[in-house]
């Protein structure tokens, strides 16, 4: 991949990562609840999920989804249902406290990783987006596999940095969030549910 093309792709990846979505919201929420260090498990799970979607897009699953409305509809409803469930769970969670809370202790690192992974893979629109986004930067005269690996690694790195900064920011303003009590949980939970409802209803 030529350097000038990669720089353009890097800027586009940064813009995409800064766009509000389920995983950035999850990083913000977990950063406030568990701290930036434990949220790394959530972030890494999301990065794995995004990398898997990029791989699927690269190997042609996007074309399959575009020609199979039924399959796309099923994926939309499954992904939307998971995000709604995540939103409801967050809505019902106890208010954030400055001291270590029981929820933080009970949530395993594997559980945090799984939430990040499923949140990333729950949105089939991301798969379709990658299918249209990635080819714009492909040079057919160069090795495709190497270009795909570079693009996947670039986006994963950018997404990791953005989500980690969100988690650190959330933990720093934790006292302010704590004063909001249950309102913070309900706000984030409501946004998750809205995203989940919008997924299957989107055209």
What does this structure look like?
By secondary structure, this protein is mainly α. It has one domain. Helices cover 82% and strands 0% of the residues. The chain has helices at residues 3-18, 22-34, 36-58, 61-67, 69-92, 102-106, 109-121, 124-133, 144-172, 174-180, 182-201. Helix 5 runs antiparallel to helix 11 (182-201). It is globular and about 55 Å long. The chain crosses the membrane at residues 6-28, 40-63, 69-91, 112-133, 145-171, 183-202.
Main attributes?
203 residues; mainly alpha
Continuous helix count: 11
Number of domains: 1
| Low-pLDDT residue intervals, each spanning 5 or more residues | 98-105
Query: What class do helices, strands and sheet pairing give?
Result: mainly alpha
Q: What is the rounded distance between the termini?
A: 33 Å
Overall geometry comes to globular
Total DSSP E strands:
0
- Please give the share of residues in helix: over 70%
Whole-angstrom Rg:
18 Å
Largest sheet entry = none
Strand content: under 5%
* Mean of residue pLDDT values: 77
- How do the SSEs run, as a string of H and E? HHHHHHHHHHH
Sum this structure up briefly.
By secondary structure, this protein is mostly helical. It contains 11 helices and no strands.
What topology does this entry show?
Layout: H1 3-18, H2 22-34, H3 36-58, H4 61-67, H5 69-92, H6 102-106, H7 109-121, H8 124-133, H9 144-172, H10 174-180, H11 182-201
Helix pairs in contact: 1-9, 2-3, 2-7, 2-9, 2-11, 3-7, 3-8, 3-9, 4-8, 5-11
GO molecular function: homoserine transmembrane transporter activity
Protein name: Lysine exporter protein (LYSE/YGGA)
GO cellular component, one term: plasma membrane
């Amino acid at each position: 991949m030529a350097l000038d093309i990669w720089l353009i792709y890097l800027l586009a990846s940064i813009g995409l990562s800064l766009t509000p979505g389920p995983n950035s919201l999850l990083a913000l929420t977990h950063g406030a609840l568990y701290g930036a260090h434990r949220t790394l498990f959530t972030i890494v799970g999301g990065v794995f999920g995004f990398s898997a979607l990029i791989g699927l897009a690269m190997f042609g699953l996007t074309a399959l989804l575009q020609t199979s409305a039924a399959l796309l509809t099923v994926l939309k409803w499954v992904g939307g249902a998971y995000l709604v469930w995540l939103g409801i769970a967050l809505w019902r969670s106890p208010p954030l406290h400055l001291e270590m809370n029981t929820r933080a202790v009970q949530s395993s690192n594997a559980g945090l990783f799984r939430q990040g992974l499923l949140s990333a893979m729950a949105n089939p629109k991301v798969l379709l987006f990658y299918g249209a986004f990635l080819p714009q930067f492909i040079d057919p005269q160069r090795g495709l596999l190497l270009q795909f690996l570079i693009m996947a690694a670039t986006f994963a790195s950018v997404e990791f940095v953005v989500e980690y900064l969100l988690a650190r920011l959330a933990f720093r303003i934790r006292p302010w969030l704590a004063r909001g009590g249950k309102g913070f949980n309900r706000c984030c939970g409501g946004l998750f549910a809205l995203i989940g409802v919008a997924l299957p209803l989107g055209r």
